[in-house]
Amino acid sequence: MSSIFTSIIVNIPYIIMALLSFNLLVIIHELGHFFLCKLNGVKVSEFSLGMGTKLFGIKGKETEYLIKVFPIGGYVKMEGEDGESNDPRAFTNKTPVQKLSIVSAGPIMNLILAVVLFASVGATKGYLLPIIKEVAPNSPAMHVGLQAGDKITKVNKVNIDRWDQFLNEVYTSKGKSLNIEVVRNSEVKKFSLTPVKDKKENIYLVGIHVSEVKKKFNFSEAVNYGFEQTISTIKQVFVFFSSLFKGEVSVNEVGGPISIIKISGKAAQAGFTTLMFFTAFLSVQLGIFNIIPFPALDGGWIFMLLFEIMSGKKLDENKVGTINYIGFMILMAVMVLVVIKDIINPLKL
Fold first, then answer.
1. What integer pLDDT is reported at residue 128 of this predicted model?
2. What DSSP letter does each residue of 27-84 carry, written as one string?
3. Considering the domain boundaries, does residue 259 fall inside one?
4. Residue 38 forms part of a structural domain
5. With bands split at pLDDT 50, 70 and 90, how would you rate the model's confidence at 150?
6. Which CATH number does the domain housing residue 164 bear?
7. Residue-averaged pLDDT of the chain
8. pLDDT score for 148
9. Do 308 and 319 contact (CB within 8 A), yes or no?
10. Same domain, 181 and 293
């Protein structure tokens, strides 16, 4: 019992860092909605961090800023978002384009945050050159003749300057053949190999390990790296969702809020830059998840507003409010199930 208590005490700083990083994503997301509400003249009655019972709040001129008991999620409560309102500053009384800008701002802010965090990680850590240190026995790389010391320069006509670029091509290959060019003793050599899937990690691999040769980014390179990593992560998220819907990913490999906090805690233990990188990864996931066209999510609003803009027909606000309420209840039910799954059958870290 004492060892468990000691372990909890030792890990408290990392748990706090994990919660702070997770809530940073929520704050940035909701600030996107909040700022666009202000820009479009929409009245906001509540800005909440967390869900459930109110812990405390500060009342502003017209908005109450709340901290709630469960440090997961948050929301911006707008006048008229759940139905018709006579208030000219109500969300429901704004143009479809104004509404679209408001609901899109959250996911966009998450993607912007990801770019900033990835760029910061790149500027701090630099990047690994795509030079092979070691080839694994009986791997696709060994079978085609790749060797230690080879510098990878191109994959399927995509120029490769960094190791993470090469990994992205492998991870998103879906097991399709890759044409690889390397420089060996100043001579260009070409190989064709097919990545194999690691069932334990659920990723594609070719069986090579990178050297520890690093270079530093300048400012423009770091920003470019931030954009590249964000785009790469978006692709990986869609590959994951595709595998999930096809039944290629087990439900046991999917985690919820508790798993996210655990993994974030592990990332915090590995160092601040590792936590930043993982937070950027989560920020992309949150942004993409929120554009899924499901009621109550930003994507549900985006879908309905795009329909309204293209058709020229105004949607019944009360019906939209009812649909979003039902969607919200379904999401809450799913969240409860995911949390229960996290407790009963947590991800193995």
1. 86
2. HHHHHHHHHHHHHTT--EEEEEEEEEEEEEEEE-SS-EEEEEEEEEEEEEEETTTTS-
3. no
4. yes
5. very high
6. 2.30.42.10
7. 82
8. 92
9. no
10. no
User: Are both 81 and 159 inside the same structural domain?
Assistant: no
* 192 vs 253, more confident: 192
Range of the domain at 93: 2-125+277-344
Alpha carbon 287 to chain centroid, angstroms: 6
User: Is it the case that residue 288 has pLDDT exceeding 70?
Assistant: yes
Average of per-residue pLDDT across 130-138: 91
Report if residue 222 sits inside a domain.
no
Select from 173, 189, 215 the last residue of a domain. 215
The length of the chain, given as a count of residues = 349
Cα dihedral across residues 293, 19, 114, 277: positive or negative: negative
Place of tokens 């080839």: 135
Task: Specify the residue for token string 């050297």.
Answer: 211
DSSP 165-192: HHHHHHHTSTT--EEEEEEETTEEEEEE
pTM, two decimals, is 0.76
Single out the residue in 195, 215, 235 at which a domain terminates: 215
Counted domains in the chain: 2
Instruction: Name the residues annotated as catalytic.
Output: 30
Residue 264 maps to a domain: no
| Residues 134 and 108 placed together within one structural domain of the fold | no
Torsions phi, psi for 78 (to 5 deg): -100, 145
189-213 average pLDDT score: 85
Helices (H), the chain: 2-39, 96-125, 140-144, 163-171, 219-245, 257-270, 272-290, 298-311, 317-344
pLDDT at res. 65? 93
Query: Of 28-37, 141-150, 272-281, 317-326, where does mean pLDDT reach its minimum?
Result: 317-326
